[in-house]
C-alpha cells in the first residue's frame, strides 16, 4: 500500500452510521489534484422527462456506500492501496436552467480531468453524461460500454428540444465525443415508441445487445464481445441503474421489467478489467422513488465494482510507466 | 396503420405524468362498440379471504401503464396499428354484496363480448375471473392458460361458502365454462393445506406444472406443452400476479416465495402468440400492499405483453377473413 | 339544481375506487366552453429549486378528490347545483424547458379565461402561478390572498436566473399583474436568508401576516383584515400546500415546521366567501414526498373548499345579473 | 390490588418487543368467564364501501398496545388493580359473507355478555358495532356516545343494500337497539352527499355536534352536554378512529380533514368517567393504509383511555354492591 | 397423524389475519416438554454493529408465518403430523447488557434441549447463535451448515470487544462448540475488510463456498458437498437472511448485493433432508428496515422449509427407535 | 458579521440537495477550537430498551438541516453572524459496549468543553445526555430545562441494570451533575408504570409540568416558571423529540399520544433566550421509524431554534466582556 493514499474509515473502529457521509467513507477533498480517481457527485436531473429525483442520487449513494469495505472478495483488488481515491464533493449545478446546468457540469469535470484524475461520477440523470463526455472526450472521441434499458439516442422532445435524458448519446455522436463504432449498449429492452426507433443508432455503428440476447448468451460471451468492440482505446463506462430489474432498483425514473439481476451486472462490470477506462458513471438513481435505499445501495455497489476495475487499470498503467 | 384506430398519447409530446390516467394512455370510451380489444377494469375483491385491496388494482395499473409505449421491442408488434383498442372504463361492482358483485361483472363482460370485442381485464381478485368466464364461455367451454402460485380449485371456505378467490376454477368447471382437459396451470407452489389438495383438479384433467418443474424445463419447453394442451380452440388466459415472485410483485394478497421472475413471465406470455385468445386478465394486484407501484407496473407490463399477442391474433384473424 | 350542470359520480352507486380518476369525480371535458369553473391540472415543477415532484400533483389530487361529496357540511353549499363545473384535464407542459413551460401554461389558462370560466388549478410548483396570472390578470392587475410559508418574492437564484418557485410574485408585481397593495400573505414563517428578506415585498405594499401573528389573532380576525385588503375587486387566491404544517402536508418540497392545521386552513378559506375570486390554485403538492396520500387529500379538500366559495360567488353574480 | 386479577407483562422486566402480542400485554384467555372487562378483537371489514383493511386492525392494535403501562398519569387509575381484564382473542368472522359475518360477531359478543363481562372491542369496520349492539342491547335499548367524522346513519348503498359501515346506526335505531334520544355524535364533519343528509338522524332525536361546534365550545362543555344526554342509563361508547385528524390517524378508510387532535380525544374520553358504560369499541383502524403504526397506536391508546374509565365504573359498581 | 400433536389453525376456517399471532399459527405453550421441535423467538440484537432491529424479528416472522399451510408441496411432508411442534414463545433477553443477554439466551435454549426438543429459533442477530450453540453443543462439538453473506469469523470490534454479530463462529470454534472441519459456509460475498480476512476460518478447516462458486455449480452440487462435510453427526443449521439478495430480503442490517434468490435458498434447504439437525435458526430479519413484510415472509418460509426437513428427521429417528 | 465566523452554504447558490451533508450546511471542522458553539453528533443508542435507531439520528438530522437558512424570522437573530459555529462531526461511540460507549461520549464532550465551545448535540438516545452532563457539569451541578414525554428518572431495568434511556437523570442527580431544584421537566405524559413513579424525582426537587398543565397554562406561563426555576446559573437544555406529538415526530422509540405541536415547542424554546445555556441536545430521533424525514426535520429545526438562543447568549456574554 502506498502510505500516502487516502484510506476509508474502518467500520470495525467507527461504525458505519457514524461520521460525515462521503463516497466509500473516504476523505472529502477540495480538488482532484493528486488523485488517480475522483469520486464525484452530479446532483442534477434537468433532462428528466418523467419522474425527476436523480438530483438526490449522490447524497443517498454516499450514505449507502458506507457499506463498502476495502477489498474485492473475488478479484482481491484493494483499490485504495493501488490508487489514490477521494471524494471531491458535488459539482456545481443549476436545477432550473438546462443549458447553464450542462455548462457547469462540463466545467466541473474538466477540472478533474485537468488534474489528471479519472472521474467516477454518481448522477444525476443520464443527460449528465453528455457534459461529462464533453470534458472527458474533449480531444479525442472515446468508446463506450453502456449498460441501460434504453438506448438514449432519441432526437427531440416536447417540440424541438434537443437535450433530455433520452437523447445524450445522439448528441454525443453528433458532437464527435463518441466513436459510435466503439460503442456497445447492453440490456436494452422495454416497449418502444416505434419499431425502427433504434435504426439511427445502429446506422451509426452502435452495437445494441438487447436483454433477450444477453439472456441467451450470458455475461461472459456478451462481455467478450463488448471488450472487442471498445478495444484498447480510451473508453467511457456508463451504468444507468435502470438496466437493473425494477425489483432490485425501483428508485429510478423509467423502470422497465425484465432487467439484469445485480449478480449479472456485477459479473459484467468485473469483466471490464482489461478496458482502458477514462471515466465512468452510475446514473438515474432517484431516491424519492427508492425503497429502503435499495437502489442507492445498488448504485454504491456498482460504483465500488467500477472503482476496482479502474483502480486495477490505474495500477497497471503505473506499472507500465515504472 | 388503420387511421381509424385509437392511438395512445405520445410521451415525447405529453409527459407521462400528464393527462387523465387510462390504460396505456388510450382514449376512454363509453362502450366496446367498434373495438377489437377492450381494456377494462374490474375493481372488486369480494372473494378475498386474507388481505383485500385488489379493488384498487385497476386505478394503479392504469397509472403505471403510462410507462408503456407503442411497439414491442422483441416481436416488433404495434398493437395499436393492427387492432382497435381503447379503455372502456371500470365495470359496475358491488363491494359489499358478493352475489350481486358477480352478477354485475358477468353483465359487464357480456356487453363487451356482445359488442364483438375481446376483453382484456385488470382485476380485481381471482374470483372476478369466474363471472368473466360466465360471459366469455357462455356458449362453449374454453381452454385456459393459467399462471398462478395457487390452483384456485378449492371447494368451500368459512363453513359452506362456495365463492372465494380460492375456488373460481372449481366452480367454472362445475358450471361447464372450462374444458378441464384444455386447462394448464403454471407456477403452482407454496405450502398447501393437504398433500392431496390438487387431486380433484388433476382428476378433472387439469395439467398442473409446479414451479419446480418449470425451473427444470424452462419457459420454451413448458409453453410448448401449454400450447399443445389448449390447442387451436378458444382459450382464456388468466395471469394472477402472485405467480411472480413476491420480491417483484409484493402488492398481492397471498404471496408465495420462489415465484417467476418477470423476465420468465414475459417470455412465457410472448409464447402465447399462436393461441386463439378470447379473453384475458391480470388479477390480484393489491395496491395497498404494493411497494412503489412495482406490482402495478408488473401488472401493466403483463397487460401490454398480453395485448401484443392478442392484437397479433386479431390481425391474423382479420387477414384470414380478408 | 340546473339540470344541465355536470354532476359528480355518486359514491353510494359507484364506489370511490372505481372509474376514471377526475377532479371530484366530475366528467372530463375537452374544453372550458360552457363552464363556470374549470378544474384544471398544471403538472409542472420546472421552477423547483430543491425537491421536485409537484409535476405529479394533479394526478394524485384527482385520486384523493374521489373522497369529496356533493355538499359542504358547514355552509350547505352545493357547488355542482349552482355552478357548472368540470375537469378540463391537464394543461400542456414542457418539463425540460422553463420558458416554453411558462408559455404553454399561460396559453392554456388564456383559453379557459377566454371561454368565460374561472380556473381552479392544481399545480405544479408555485412558479406555475406566474403564467396563470399572466392570463387571468392580462387586462387589469388583481389582488391576491396568498396562503404560504414563504413570501416567494425573492429575486435571483443560481446566478442570474429570474424564474423559480421562490420568485413568482416579485415577477408578477414587476409585470403589473398584481396590485401589491391588494396582496396579503398569510402564514409566512421559517428561517430566512436575511433579516431584511421581506423588505422589498413590504415596500411594494404587500401585507405579510406571519404565522405568529396568526396564532395570536386567530382566523376570524386575520381573514377580516384580508378581506379588507383585497376589497371588492378581482382577486386571485393561491394556496401553497406548505402553509399547512409538515405533519399534515409532508408531500411538498420546502416544508417548514409550525404551520397551519388543516382545520385553520379550512376556516380561513371559508371566510373568503365574500371575495370576488377570478382564479385560484392549490400548488406544491409533491406526491413523491407524500405519505399515504395525506398531502394530496389536503390539496383535494382545499380545492373543494375553494370550489364552494367560488361557486357561491358565481351564483351570486348570476343572481345579480338576473 | 386484587391479587387474582390478571396483570400485564412489565416492560422493565420483559422488553416491549418480546413475547406474544396481546392487548396491553395481558394474558390471552379462552373465555370471558371471571372477567370484568373483556378485550376482544373483531377482525372484519365486510361493510366497507371504499378502502378495506380494518380486518387487520386487531393485530396491529395489539402490537402497538405493548406501549401501554399500568396506570393513568392524570387520573391515577390502575385499571388492572381494580378490574379483572384479559385478552379473549378474536371473534369468529367470515370475510366473504356479510350476513354470516354479522351473525358470528353477534354470537361472539353474546358469549362475553353472558359471562358477565363488559366487551371493549377493537374493530373492524363500523358495521361491526351493529352486531355488537344486538348482543349488548339485547334486552334494553342503550344510549351511545359516538365519536366519528360521519353520522353513519345512511340508508342504502349500491342499490338496495342495507348493511354497510355507513348505515349501522340507522339499522340499530330501526331494530330498537339504540335509544336515539340518548345518542350523541361528536366530531361530524366533511363534505356530505346531500345538505339534508342528517335530517333522519336528527328527527330520531340524535344530537349531532359538528366539529365546528366542538372547536367553538371545547371538550369540557361538549362532554358535559354529552353526559347529560346519555344520563345514568346503560351506554355504549363507539370510537371511530376517523374522528381523529387524518394526520394523526391516516390508517383508516374514509379520512376527513380537520379532525380531533389526539389530545382532544383523550380529554373527551376521560370525561366519560361518570357514564355507565356497558360496552365500547375502537373501530376503523385500517393498517394497510397506516403510516408507521401511528393509527394503531392511537387506537391502542384510546382503548387504554376507555379501559381506565370503564374500570373505574366497574370498581364503583363493585363498591356500591359491597 | 398422531392425534396428540399440536395442529395449526386452519385458514379455511379462521382467516389468516384473525387470532393471536404465533409461529405457523400453532398453539403457544409454556414449555418445550413433550415437543419434538420447539419454535422459539430470540428477540435480541445486542451484537449488531450497524443497523439494529433484529430484536423485532420474532414478532414479524410470527405475523408472516400465518401464510404457511400444513404440507410441503414438493416433498409432501406434513410436519405437524409427524412431529409435535409448538410455539414456546420468546426467550428472556436483555437489550442493554450484552453479557447478560448472552447468558439468558443460553439458559433459555438449555431448557428446551433439556426437555428433549429441537430448537428452531427466529432471531435476533447472528450473535444469538453463539449462546444457542453453547446449549445445543454443550456436550459435543457440532457440525454446521451456514447460509450467509458473511463468514462472521472476525475477531475484535471497536477496540477489544470480542462479541458482535461479526464474530460468533470464531468464538464458537475457540470454545469448542463447533467442529470446524464439519462446518460449511455458503453464499459468502461482498466487499471485505482485508483480502486475507477469511484465512483464519479456512485454517481452522471451515469450507467457504463463495457466491460465485455457487452460481457456477448450482444448488445440487453444492449441497451434495455440504452434506458430505457435515456427514452423519449432529449438525446445526444457521440461516442468516442476508444470504438472500437484498431485493428479496431488504430488512436486514448488512445487505450485500448479488445474493441467493429465495428459490435457490429453498432448494438448498430441501436438500438438507438427510442431515441430523440438532438445532436451527433464521437470524438477522430486521423489521424496521423491511419493506412490506417481505423479509419476514422470507424468514417465515425458510423456517417452514427447515421445519419440514427437521420433522422428517425426527420421524425417521422415531421410526428407527420403534 | 464577524468575517472570520463560519458561514453556511447559501441555498440560492448551491441547491440544498448538493454538497456534503453537515449540520446547517456549515463547514466540517476537525476540532472545536475557536468555536463558540460546536454542533456535534452522538450516534449511539445503547441505552434503548424498546425500539433502537437513534444511532442513525445525526446523519438524518444533518440531511434535514439543509433546509435551515441564516436568520430567525421572529427574533431576527443571525446566529452565524454573532457566534462562530461549525460541525465538529460525530463523537466516537461503541454500539455494543454500554460502559465504553458512555466513556467515549464523556471524553468527546470534554474535548469540546475544554476548547471553550458550547456543545449542541444531536443524539442518540437519552442516555447519551448522562455522559454529556458528566463533562459539561464536571465542576459544578447545572440546572436543566427538560422537554420530554417521560421523566427518565427510573432506577433499574431487566434486573439490576442502572443505565438505560429511562434512567439518565436519576443517575445524574445521584452523581451530583444536576441540581434537582433547578430542574424542570415539561410535557410529561402517557401511561405510567406506577402511580407513584415520579415521587422520587419530585422528592429531589424536580418540578414536573405535565402536558395537561401545559395545555391549561400555555407556553408563556410555563416558560416564565421554567426560567425562574433555572435562574441565572448555568443550565443545560435537553429536548427529547418524543415531547412532540407522534403525528409530528413519529420517528422515535417510545411515542406517546397527546404531545406538543411543533409550534408550541418552537415557542417554548424561543422563550429560553434569557437562560445561560452551557450545553444542549436534541435526542431520540430514530430514523428507522421515521416517516419521510419528518422527525429529523423537527429535530433539525429545534436545533436551529436552540442555536439561535444560544448564539444570542454567546453574543450577550461577549458584549458584557467587551
Automatic annotation (TrEMBL), chains A, B, C, D, E, F:
One GO molecular-function entry: agmatinase activity
Superkingdom, taxonomy of origin: Bacteria
Upper lineage: Bacteria, Pseudomonadati, Pseudomonadota, Alphaproteobacteria, Hyphomicrobiales
Gene Ontology terms describing biological process: putrescine biosynthetic process from arginine, via agmatine
Binding site for Mn(2+) 1: 148, 150, 152, 240, 242
Annotated gene: speB
Record key words, sorted: Hydrolase, Manganese, Metal-binding
Alphabetized CDD domains for the sequence: Agmatinase_PAH
InterPro entries per record: Agmatinase-rel, Ureohydrolase, Ureohydrolase_dom_sf, Ureohydrolase_Mn_BS
Protein name (Swiss-Prot/TrEMBL): Agmatinase
Membrane-spanning intervals of the chain: none
Cofactor requirements of the protein: Mn(2+)
Cofactor details (free text): Binds 2 manganese ions per subunit.
Ligand binding (Mn(2+) 2): 126
Coiled coil: none
Entry similarity comment: Belongs to the arginase family. Agmatinase subfamily.
Amino acid at each position: 500500500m502506498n502510505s500516502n493514499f487516502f484510506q476509508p474509515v474502518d467500520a470495525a473502529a467507527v461504525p458505519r452510521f457514524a461520521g460525515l457521509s462521503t463516497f466509500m467513507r473516504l476523505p472529502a477533498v477540495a480538488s482532484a489534484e493528486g488523485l488517480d480517481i475522483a469520486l464525484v457527485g452530479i446532483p442534477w436531473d434537468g433532462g428528466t422527462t418523467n419522474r425527476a429525483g436523480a438530483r438526490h442520487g449522490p447524497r443517498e449513494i454516499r450514505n449507502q456506500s458506507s457499506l463498502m469495505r476495502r477489498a474485492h472478495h473475488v478479484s482481491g483488488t484493494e483499490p485504495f492501496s493501488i490508487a489514490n481515491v477521494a471524494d471531491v464533493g458535488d459539482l456545481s449545478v443549476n436545477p432550473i436552467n438546462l443549458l447553464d446546468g450542462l455548462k457547469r457540469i462540463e466545467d466541473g469535470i474538466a477540472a478533474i480531468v485537468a488534474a489528471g484524475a479519472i472521474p467516477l461520477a454518481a448522477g444525476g440523470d443520464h443527460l449528465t453524461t453528455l457534459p461529462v463526455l464533453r470534458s472527458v472526450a474533449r480531444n479525442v472521441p472515446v468508446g463506450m460500454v453502456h449498460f441501460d434499458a434504453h438506448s438514449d439516442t432519441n432526437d427531440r422532445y416536447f417540440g424541438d428540444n434537443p437535450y433530455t435524458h433520452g437523447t445524450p448519446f445522439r448528441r454525443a455522436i453528433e458532437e464527435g465525443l463518441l466513436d459510435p463504432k466503439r460503442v456497445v449498449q447492453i440490456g436494452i429492452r422495454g416497449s418502444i415508441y416505434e419499431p425502427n426507433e433504434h435504426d439511427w443508432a445502429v446506422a451509426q455503428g452502435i452495437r445494441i445487445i438487447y436483454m433477450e440476447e444477453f439472456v441467451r448468451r450470458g455475461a461472459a460471451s456478451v462481455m467478450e464481445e463488448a471488450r472487442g468492440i471498445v478495444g484498447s482505446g480510451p473508453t467511457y463506462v456508463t451504468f444507468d441503474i435502470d438496466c437493473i430489474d425494477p425489483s432490485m432498483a425501483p428508485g429510478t425514473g423509467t423502470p422497465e421489467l425484465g432487467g439484469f439481476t445485480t449478480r449479472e451486472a456485477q459479473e459484467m462490470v468485473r469483466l471490464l478489467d482489461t478496458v482502458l477506462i477514462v471515466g465512468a458513471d452510475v446514473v438515474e438513481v432517484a431516491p424519492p422513488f427508492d425503497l429502503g435505499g435499495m437502489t442507492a445501495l445498488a448504485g454504491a455497489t456498482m460504483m465500488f465494482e467500477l472503482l476496482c476495475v479502474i483502480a486495477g487499470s490505474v495500477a497497471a498503467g503505473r506499472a507500465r510507466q515504472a
